[in-house]
Automatic annotation (TrEMBL):
One of its GO terms (molecular function) is coenzyme A diphosphatase activity. Residues 33-171 form the Nudix hydrolase domain. Pfam families: NUDIX (PF00293). It comes from the Bacteria. InterPro entries: CoAse (IPR045121), NUDIX_hydrolase-like_dom_sf (IPR015797), NUDIX_hydrolase_dom (IPR000086). This is Coenzyme A pyrophosphatase.
Length: 195
């Protein structure tokens, strides 16, 4: 699949069948959620399209060692969630904001840890050499979209928390384990584009 085909599929599906805001992607919270945004960077490589992901350092207080998209908390200086995601990607992995074409965004995803995350889909225009901020990112890697689109590579497990059942998504990939909000957003992205 080429970037142009993915962009067309994204736009057509956004118009014809919007993704529902129902579970597993939203759940009620009694506390005020902190606003955050992440970038789903779609990168063209010789073997096809890939999704860029980061691994958080072990010294982080929140989610140490977990795999995530580049992104973070919305700042008052950000004009919208896309601005947050682009700013954070530039700070965390050195992806220039001018090197990304924003396609759109998915419905926000509430987390158990008190965040409302807005995923922003962005096409990376030119290859780039990642420059990692060691305070926020331990590693950067990509996963082929051809792997992620296969439904048998995306898993779902129902768990109970405070008397409510919630799905937890996970994706084993090589020696990595993608789970939680990141895996749920990947599942949403793949269902939107391919199903």
């Amino acid at each position: 699949m080429e970037i142009s085909e993915l962009a067309t599929r994204y736009q057509l599906h956004a118009l014809s069948s919007p993704i529902p805001l129902a579970p597993p992607y939203r759940f009620a919270s009694k506390t005020k959620l902190r606003q955050a945004a992440v970038l789903i960077p779609v990168i063209a490589k010789p073997d096809g399209l890939h999704i860029g992901l980061t691994q958080r350092p072990m010294h982080m207080r929140a989610h140490p060692g977990q795999i995530s998209f580049p992104g973070g908390k919305v700042e008052s200086s950000d004009i919208n969630e896309a601005a947050t995601a682009l700013r954070e990607a530039e700070e965390e992995i050195g992806l220039s904001q001018q090197n990304v074409t924003v396609l759109g965004q998915f419905p926000s995803h509430n987390t158990f840890t008190g965040f409302e995350i807005t995923p922003i889909v962005g096409m990376v225009k030119q290859p780039f050499e990642p420059v990692l901020d060691p305070g926020e990112v331990a590693d950067y890697f990509t996963v082929p979209l051809s792997f992620l689109r296969q439904q048998h590579n995306r898993h779902r497990l129902n768990v109970s928390r405070k008397g409510q059942n919630f799905p937890v998504f996970f994706i084993p990939y090589q020696n990595r384990f993608i789970w939680g909000a990141t895996a749920a957003i990947i599942d949403l992205f793949c269902r939107h584009i391919f199903e």
